[in-house]
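QUALITY CONTROL LOG
STEP: pairwise intake check
CHECKER ROLE: data steward
CRITERIA: each record must contain a sequence immediately followed by its structure tokens, with no blank fields

ENTRY 1 OF 2
RESULT FIELD BELOW
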Amino acid sequence: MGLLKYQNYLDTHLGDLSKKTIVITGANSGIGFYAARSLVYKGARVVMACRSQVRAEEARKAIIEMIPNADIDILIFDQASFSSIEKFASELANKYSSIDGFVFNAGIFHPKKDAMTKDGYPLTMGTNYLGTFYLFELLRPYFEQMEHISVVCVGSLANRRYKYQNVESYFISKKLTLYRQYALSKKFMMANHCFFMRQDGVNVHYSVMHPGVASTNIVSGSSNSFPRWFSRVARSFMSTFMNHPEKAALGIVLLAAQEKTHGQYLVPRGLFGISGYPICKKVPQRLSRNAQVIHELTVDFFHKLRRL
């Protein structure tokens, strides 16, 4: 039996990564954790960008117990706070003159109904999209300094849901259901990334993936507001029938570690993209069609806030 559950897959698809440094937001749990562990196994130095120092240290300890020579750094930031994002972006650029990959993975699913970000926006939309977008824009000049870098957006199967009209109205609306906030925040995030995937001949290789439905703590984590009985039942069901998070993380690993991934869209190869090993597919029109409009409207939104 291998060291990791999907060790044979990793050994088949990836070479030595000992000269690479890859940053993963939200790397202390779920698919972010398993992506970090898989990359470390192949020799990469991984920077875990997390909200909680305690949980990040626990995650690092768990990886080192399995892989004693693991090279793992920790940087703390809160994606629900613009000031924390600014501090993180500055610290990252100052500490690492060069990185080889960056994974936008951090996000939340089902917080308390009226939860807000530090800056007063609905927590799901504010964290998953506004926070991600702001971090993305602050880091773009940094990315462009690299000889080449893989920048990965971790989206969601939920991007298939819901049409939208006035994009900016969803950034501040408190009337959206929590699931609709989640689905739209992921759709906007993926569409923004698709806008940059259209650019050719760049040193920054933008790609998007979604993990299908993975048996993570998405319904039972401390930030979620589901009843305990529902969390237990859902977690048991997901563990039995859905992708193990280590398998769901393989798409992240491939895109973050390999070069020349610009424009790739990875999804699970199984029925309806729910589970399975990653496969490259064409970017859906629902993401590419309005990518430029979504990007420009979000830039305008941040200009009005005098953040960009």
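ENTRY 2 OF 2
RESULT FIELD BELOW
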Amino acid sequence: MQPQTKPAACHARLIAGFVILSTFVIMMYGFIVYEAWVLHSIGGILVAVILIGILIALWHEAHTLKQAEPCHVSSAHRLLTFITLLGGAGAAYWISVHLCLGPVAGSALVGLLGALVFPRYNVPIYTGSFVGMSSAALLASPAELLLAAGIAGVVYILAEDALNGFGGKLGTIAFSGSLLAGLGLQRQFLISPMPSFELAWQIVALSVAAAVITYWLSTVLKHGPVLASSAVGVTGGLLLPAISPETGPLLAVVVICASFTGMSASKRFASPLPMIAAGLLTGIVFLYSVPVFGGTGGKLGTIAFGASLAVWGYQKAFRRMS
């Protein structure tokens, strides 16, 4: 029988994890609101509305923290969780940078391997793979990658019981490590232009499709969120660049981003209908997020996390009003 963590320590860790996750998703969406407003005032208003939905969801979840049950996790399990997260980061970075397969294939392949071979630790492995999606310009050496993954590993342990069931949470954990490491190393983030209007429709459509398919594989077919997301990511990461060398790589990024949204649990989204809305918001926010924190691992998951929170937040608000 595993030892029970003292309630006070467990509650303090839960609050710390909740605050960290909330801070990074609000910060990310705050920057995207600014970029969207500069590009199109209507886009800025739209992303601001999404941010309000995030705040509603976080406000509601903050009031449930006292109801959380005491955690039952051994120190050995936490150590293995931390180690496997580091391993996932290193493996994904190696596939992405050194094998030149790109971050989408790198993360998705590691997630798929973790789900099939190491099912007990597939979640931290997949989380680490998001750190490994960082560009070589941001994290240029194994030591720098280890720094980012180490920070993410600490945040993972703190936030393990916070805001569960929302797609993109794992990416937000990875984003905290990648961003803090990049800022600490005084690295420049990649800056890319916003996609063209013609490509925008493809991005939004693929985002909805990828989110719904992932949700369906995970909750309806019972394959679990990691296997579902990584399978969708591998498919998009390998097929789309081959079909269209010019636009395929960007569309593959969209697919895996939306697959993180589809990792949401059925306790948060009881049917595919709200997942369609979450996938739609993911695609829209992705468009305006391109110039923000480019090359940072976990950025895509943070976009998905915000979209999932916003849809759930507005669902709660409308139910309360009615």
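INTAKE CHECK: passed for both entries
DESCRIPTIVE NOTE, ENTRY 2: The longest helix spans residues 7-39.
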